[in-house]
Amino acid sequence: MTFVWVCIGMIVALGVIALVANQFDKGEDTIVTGHDCSTCTEAVKGDCKIHCLMEEKKKKENTSASGKSLTSYLLLLTSLLLMVGCNMKKNTATNRLYHSFTAKYNIYYNGSQAFIEGNLEKEKGNKDNYTEMIPLYMVGNKQSRELGKGQFDRAIEKSEKAIRLHSIKGKPEWKSNKKKTARDREWLGRKEYNPFIWKAWMLLGKAQFQKGAFDEAAATFSYMTRLYQTQPIQSGLAKAWLAKCYTELDWIYDAEDVIRNMSRDSMDFRTVKDWDYTYADFYIHQGDYEKAVPYLKKVIKHEKRNVQRAREWFLLGQIENMMGHRDEAYRAFKKVVGCHPPYEMEFNARICQTEVMAASDGRKMISKLKRMAASDNNQEYLDQVYYAIGNIYLHQGDTLQAIGAYEKGNKESVRNGVEKGVLLLTLGNLYWQLEKFSDAHRCYGEAIGLLDQERSDYEELSHRSKVLDELVPHTEAIHLQDSLLALSEMPEEERLAAIDRVIEALKQKEKEEREAQLDAEAAELQEQMQQQQGGMNNQPLNTQTTTQPTVQGNGQWYFYNPMAVSQGKTTFQQQWGRRENKDNWQRVNVTVLSTPETDDSNDEDEVNEKGEGGGLPENPDSIAGLGDRALADSLTNDSIAHGTAMKDSLANDPHERAYYLAQIPFTEEQKAASHALIQDALFHAGVIFKDKLDNLSLSERHLRRLTDNYDNYEHMDEAWYHLYLLYSRWGDFPTADDCLDKMAKNYADSEWTILLTDPYYEENARFGEHIEDSLYAATYDGFKNDRYEMVKANAKLSESRFPQGENRDKFLFIEGLSLLNEGDGDGSIARLKEVVEKFPDSEVSKMAGMIIKGVNEGRRLHGGKFDIGDVWSRRDITLTADSTRQDTLDARTDQNFLFILAYEPDSVNENQLLFNMARYNFTNFLVRNFDIQIDEDHGLHRMLISGFLSYDEALQYARQLYDDEAMKERVKDCRSIIISESNLKLLGTTYSYDDYLKFYEERFIPLKISEEELLIVPEGFEMPDPEDVGGEPEPTSSEETEQETEEDELFQMARPKPKVQDIDFGDDFW
Among 311, 551, 589, 612, who pairs with 593 as Cys (CB 3.0-4.6 Å)? Predict the structure, then answer.
């Protein structure tokens, strides 16, 4: 009440001051006006009158100035007092009006302008992938998320500042004897009383959303729904954007929960527009396109930005096309063109128009696409044009024409973008279906670097590409060696004709490549000249006289005409071939016969010597008649070193017959080597087809050719083994039994024969994994209980029954430790070395190597035996001391701490736990960002939550987490650890988890922590922006601010019972 009376008193005083000043001015006017001219000493009455008027005016001005000056000072003083009074943040009408006005027209205005500029920057730089369904929001494109980030960060900064400086949370005063209506109770129940600050909250969340920080935006809007839960407009808008954030995060169930709850509530009409966007985005992500279309049409009506409206029409066309509504899709793409969007979007809309109408009139659409390909405006998009043509052919069932269109699109493409990647992927899939694996490998290999790794089909593409990396070298080797052997058996005339066809194809290919290169160079030169001419046009005139270059008849200098330069280059190379830029370049045989030692002086003599008999005319100009021969020389491989003999150069030149004849196996030794390559390739290709491609027919073809034609192959027993498995999978058991009979007859001692003839083979094939696991578990328990004879017996059983088992390395390791405990050092080292050599990637291989090193260095076992402890007692084995390493735990509390959830890998659902912790953090801690990382330590998995500036903050976080019953249940199988960053380095190395627990209980548990709520305070303090300087209020005192308190509980570390897992070393290993 005191503050209210102070403000009222100031306002009354201000009115009195103004009234007094006004009366003072009027009084002066009366005094001056009452002057008597008869008393004036001026001789002339007229002059006296003028004099009186001047004196009257002068006095009036002085008096008025004095009054105004006094009034100004009093007004300024009163305003300052009023501002100081308002800065106390009392919840009054005056204070609410002041803070609302200041927030809106100062900080919020700057933030909103930054938000608008960020959106414009994102709209200008956004690039959609039209080969897939485009997102409703541009921020859905990952490549566009960084656009406008600086502006959005500024908007976030301004929003947070407006909230921090102008939020009013104190309850207004209410007379106890005054009756409360329902509206009064709603008013008194609010948590925020600044009527404008909700817009700052909305700006904060929207800026985070457009920045791509959907989790932060979700936290903002989630908090806002609680803050304004009694106000339907603000709460409805916040829920709409919260559902959008969940949708963009692909948290469909959370978004559906928000939408379902909102559907039951009354929706304010002013929030309908935002909910239309939310429903459209949600149903599109959910794949429910029937429900998405009506809302998307409403969104288009709401949209004011032309580019975004065109995107929404394009998205609607894609959805209608997927639903099979071709007419509606065609009209939607037509609307895109009508919006006059950027050319790339318009071009893709026209492409989509042809594709959706291809079913009814494919020939007409192909003609239209070919006209588009002929347009100069579309030269950059030829890959998309031919991709569309190929799709139409493929839809018509003409696979050959489709492949031709795709290949032409790949050839004509000038961009290495995602559009080319999609084309190559489609082409590769066609080749894959046709079992042309070499061509598929070529397409997949190039496509994998152009496509986004988060595509739904990227994993399959990556798998196929890796498999083909292994397969294609073998299939290519088979094809090449078969071709060479076939050439060796041909008559001479047919062989040479086949070689000539290969050479001619090579020359044609190189010619096309040269022409394409020249065209590209000409286009690049033309672009550079246009840029230079544009720059010259923008430069000021130079008064100095310059020498003008020689011009052609059309007034343009020859070398300024890219087309003329290109034609000149082509004509020159047709006549002379490719020549080095050196002296005597006109010599016909300079490319083949010149030697490195030949200097310029010798060149002159050599030319004179060959002038008559060397084939060179005396007149250099007449050498033009040797154009054909020069062209042949120009086709010579550039890699041929100068000075090699003619015979060697021809054998290394793929344009000559000798190059191919040298590779053909004519002798018996050469043919035997060729067949050896074929045998090895047939075997590996057959195994890959069976095991990695599941193509049993091709696998049978390769393996059967191997077994039928090459009896002397060194791995023939394994080939029959794979054929046995192949026929068994086919269900052809009689043929499988025939394969086994041949193995038993011809390869009785083979490990594969022994494996198949094992009486337990069928049982092992069905239950072997479970049997081996059970055997290993029994062996592990026996080792822990010092039953070493049982360990050795089980290890021997594992060797005989499960030689290829998953736990074979662990059996060897445990047997080696048992032998070492019994004093058999040599036997132990032999077993451990076998682990290291045969299983280098095993998890026990590293430990085996450390034990071998320790034994070799003469280290002894502590207590004479190995002590296998639980996982929480495990620590590293340090063989050599490190004097620089920190080896003591630090008890300081004023450093960075972490909260850790440690667990055994199979004890919790790690992905679900990560989701729960991330959601808990951003929905409960608005002003703090905690990072979550997962690592592995000695067989344990740890979820590390960092961002705590002290021990007190970490402990408050842990207490709040365990006060939440739902979260307490979710982390019940984890051990909770609060530890500093410096102590974390020692955990699991110098100290075990149990060691640190003892240290924690002794040094940290007795400490008394701060009672302040540290986690609601931002990590840093922001300096005020000069452009936001205004009447900033003082912070609210503790007795004027509503505080929430919660009951403290002692934080207890959860200690789940450890599970037996593999090999665990105890505290005293050595």
Answer: 589
Q: What is the 3-state secondary structure (H, E, C) of 470-488?
A: HHHHHHHHHHHHHHHHHHH
What is the β-pairing status of strands 931-937 and 897-903?
Answer: unpaired
- pLDDT digits 0-9 by tens, 634-663: 334 443 444 444 555 566 788 888 888 888
Classify 947 as helix, strand or coil: strand
Residue 990 per-residue DSSP state? T
Task: For CA atoms 315, 318, 322, 328, give the dihedral sign.
Answer: positive
pLDDT digits 0-9 by tens, 72-107: 544 544 454 445 444 445 778 888 888 889 888 888
- 427-470 pLDDT tens trace: 999 999 999 999 999 999 888 888 888 788 888 888 889 999 99
Q: Per-residue pLDDT for 526 more than 90?
A: no
Residues paired with 931 in a beta bridge: 946
- What HEC string does 647-700 produce? HHHHHCCCCCHHHHHCCCCCCHHHHHHHHHHHHHHHHHHHHHHHHCCCCHHHHH
Tokens of 199: 């817009």
Distance in angstroms (rounded) separating the CA atoms of residues 414 and 376: 13
Mean pLDDT calculated for residue range 313-333: 91
Q: Which helix or strand (DSSP H or E) is residue 902 part of?
A: strand 897-903
Contact at 8 Å (CB) between 674 and 481? yes
Residue 944 phi/psi, 5-degree rounding, is -100, 120
Q: Is 926 left (phi over 0), alpha (psi -120 to 50) or beta?
A: alpha
pTM check: above 0.90: no
Q: What pLDDT digit, counting tens, does each position of 426-435 carry?
A: 999 999 999 9
Sheet with 975-980: strands ordered across? 931-937, 940-948, 897-903, 975-980
- The answer to whether 108 touches 159, Cβ cutoff 8 Å, is yes
Cα separation, 916 vs 762, in Å, equals 45
Exposure string for 543-558, b = 16+ CB within 10 A, e = fewer: eeeeeeeeeeeeeeee
Q: Are 1000 and 958 in contact (CB under 8 A)?
A: no
Nearest CA to 363 among 400, 410, 398? 398
pLDDT attached to residue 315: 93
Find how far residue 835's CA is from the centre of its chain.
39
CA atoms in the 13 A half-sphere facing the CB of 902: 26
Which DSSP state fits 841?
T
Whole-angstrom Cα distance, residue 889 to residue 988?
A: 12
Cβ-count burial of 682 within 10 angstroms (0-12 exposed, 13-18 middle, 19+ buried)? buried
How far is it, in rounded angstroms, from Cα 964 to Cα 345? Answer: 50
Q: Sort 903 into a burial class: Cβ within 10 Å, 0-12 / 13-18 / 19+.
A: buried
User: 671, 481 in Cβ contact below 8 A?
Assistant: no
Task: Give 61's Cβ-side CA count (13 Å radius).
Answer: 6
Q: Confidence band (pLDDT; 50, 70, 90) for 937? A: confident
Overall average pLDDT of the 748-770 stretch: 69
Higher pLDDT residue, 634 or 699? 699
Q: Residue 209 pLDDT > 90, yes or no?
A: yes
CA distances from 168 to 79, 97, 211, 820 (A): 21, 11, 28, 74
**What is the rounded CA–CA span in Å between residue 584 and residue 616?**
13
Question: For residue range 100-127, what is the model confidence (pLDDT) as tens digits?
Answer: 898 888 889 999 999 999 999 999 888 8
Q: Which residues 6+ apart lie within 8 Å of 197 measured at CB?
A: 99, 100, 103, 162, 163, 166, 167, 168
Of 168 and 614, the one with more pLDDT = 168
Handedness of CA 1035, 1036, 1039, 1042 (dihedral sign): negative
On whether the CB atoms of residues 866 and 1019 are closer than 8 A, the answer is no
